[in-house]
Write a structure and sequence with these properties.
By secondary structure, the chain is an alpha/beta fold. The protein folds into two domains: about 10-285, P-loop containing nucleotide triphosphate hydrolases (Rossmann fold, 3-Layer(aba) Sandwich); about 295-540, Rossmann fold, CATH 3.40.50. Helices cover about 35% and strands about 20% of the residues. The protein has 19 helices and 23 strands. The protein has a nine-stranded mixed beta sheet with strand order 13-12-14-15-23-22-21-18-19, sandwiched between helices. A seven-stranded parallel beta sheet has the order 5-2-6-1-7-10-11, sandwiched between helices. The structure holds glutamine. The site of glutamine (GLN) has 10 residues, from strand 19. Glutamine binds near residues 360, 388, 467 and 468.
Length: about 550
Amino acid sequence: MNPMPEVTKYIFFTGGVVSSVGKGVTAAAIGLLLKERGFNVAVQKLDPYINVDPGTMSPYQHGEVFVLDDGAETDLDLGHYERFIDIHLNRVCNMTTGQVYAEVIQKERRGDYLGGTIQVIPHITNEIKRRIGLVAKTMGAEIVLVEVGGTVGDIESLPFLETLRQIRHEVGRENCAFIHVTWLPHIGATQELKTKPTQHSVAELRSIGISPDMIVARSDFAMDDSLRDKIALFCDVEKRAVVPIITTPVLYEVPLLLEEAGVADYLIQRLGLEARQKPDWSTWQHLVAKVRQPKPTVQIALVGKYVELHDAYMSVRESLKHAALALGVEVEIKWVLSTDLEKGKCWQVVKEAAGVIVPGGFGSRGIEGKIQAARYARENNVPYLGLCLGMQLMVVEFARDVLGLENANSTEFDHSTPYPVIDLMIEQRAITDMGGTMRLGLYPCVLQPGTKAAEAYSVSQVEERHRHRFELNNTYRESLASKGMLFSGISPDGKLVEIAEIADHPFMLGSQFHPEFLSRPNRPHPLFLAFVKAAVERSKQ
Ligand code: GLN
């Protein structure tokens, strides 16, 4: 086996032309390529916004908030990294401008820089550097992949890019590589792809002192060889380092495409490394082949409040896909706006679905629609999976309709409800700050034998990721249980209900945690698997 490289190697990802062209997926896939060659890798995302983390942002602004084991609330790209590379990242793997400034300002107030004028260079850039350095240390990574959010030319990302330039200067060119991910627009009238915006964005990158080693050129149409030559020549990269990636509906095909393009071999050579093992792509090839196969379709109604933006439920969608693949079916997600249900609209979609999923959420808009969806699922034996808020509302619905507790609610939505079946956790009562103060990250959960949850997991204890302030009010445990609600997952101290299910139902289960953050393409999450399996059964009826 080759020894561990003496210095940490870095691969930096920048974006050109436009955002949302799959820079995160590209970084994730390249991480997998390197892991497959026997290297310890970690990925870090640098987000240029001033928020300390995305936890306080609307999903409309930002998409899903991805939660890590240590409770960090992070960018959804970390979900891609974890799913593709099959690793567990930590909180240093998502840096924001807000974190950097907060730290520097705190130090300034403490007097750490007494006498000095605090400036972007060197104070901010040094803090960015320190945080990049923490990734290798805390993750034990030999190769650190760093993705810069946004596109080159944004004012906000300049300090990040300047820091990367300095790192290259300090660690040497042989220890870092820059990958620029761009977009080739297609001109309909002439039926051609255009490289000019790519050239411009490389010129922009150069003007801040960074020359890319590789261009990943994304496009909706195949790129011919002459264009590759052109990009290589004008952007001054080797031809084999111009990597065309055509848009694919199969996300999990990207590592295979990059492997075929020789990306990893080029990169490890460029970084002076040697592969420790031959990559084994059989699992991924099998996975992609399964995606491509025609399969029976199962419709799942996802009842949420941000359904117009599918990215808000990224991990839920991926988890459904993982489970469906394992079962040889195709999940068709029907996105249902819960406020539509309140107006009596879209019920046909829910009625045609073989399963209902109510994901996490905050705030009162659309709550009653979700409760109505849970009632429909319970009364009609439709498989139901509730994730965090979806679990809480399943309890509210049951309390109202089965226990007859009129106006039962969560105190999040009704402070003066006579029956607060879901209430603020005791530890949360004194908290006034909104950012990073929920019950976050991994907590253990003991499964109760003989329940659907225990059957799905087939172990006695699990650890899952949380992000909530409210919980099932223990005052109501007994009465809920007496009418057929099972508390199938409990915290080891017995104080917190982590999973609830309905005894007399094919599959109606809600978890206080978010199982969607731990599902993997080739290892679907047990609860998603059990839910989709129940939906498949239902669709056969
Ligand atoms: N709003 C609920 C709570 O804070 C649910 C949170 C969630 O769904 N992530 O407990």
